[in-house]
Fold this sequence. Notes:
The strands form four sheets. Strands 1-5-4-8-2 form a five-stranded mixed β-sheet, covered by helices on one side. Strands 7-3-6-9 form a four-stranded mixed β-sheet. It has five helices and 13 strands. The chain has helices at about 10-20, 70-75, 80, 85, 125-140, and strands at about 5-10, 20-25, 30, 40-45, 50-60, 65, 105, 115, 120-125, 145-150, 150-155, 165, 170-175. By secondary structure, it is an alpha/beta fold. β10 (about 145-150) and β11 form a beta hairpin.
Amino acid sequence: MYFYDMFFSLPTMEDYVAKGWAINGTKGGLILGPSHDEGGIMMWQRTTEGDGYRLKGEVEGYEYILNPGASHCYRNIFSSINKHDEHQNENWAEYSIPENISIIDTRRSGEPRFILLDANFSIVNKYSTKCYLNTIEKMNNARSFEMLDEKTLKIVYANLAPIDIYNSCTNEVEGTLVRQE
């Protein structure tokens, strides 16, 4: 059981990163690590004051974290991709990950396992990630962010090209994403 009002100071989390207990997940990527049934990975979000991190929840292996820039720019179509109930009917099995995919690897022995995040990220469930992995990766790489100060993010457009929404579970293109402000 996790207590969602838990707080760790910035120096404590910096120490955890140095020890390999925490991983910076702010740029997003495919999470590798234990499932929820195996204990999952605790997700910590930086406070608005920038003085530390609060426990936000738990993620699991094969979920995908979208960085704040991609989360903001693609928020209007996010629910059309992240369909847990529909996609959980797919037969779940670990799969080969293409080399071009950004990875957040939390697999290691020992505890704790933490992912550190800034504000405005999105999480794609593992079932939907499996179906849309290449599309999600393109979304994550097309829009990023730059920290202007401790509290302000600026969206950065790395790629303005349209992105096809390709569902590898059905082998269909379901639409095209265009730049959204």
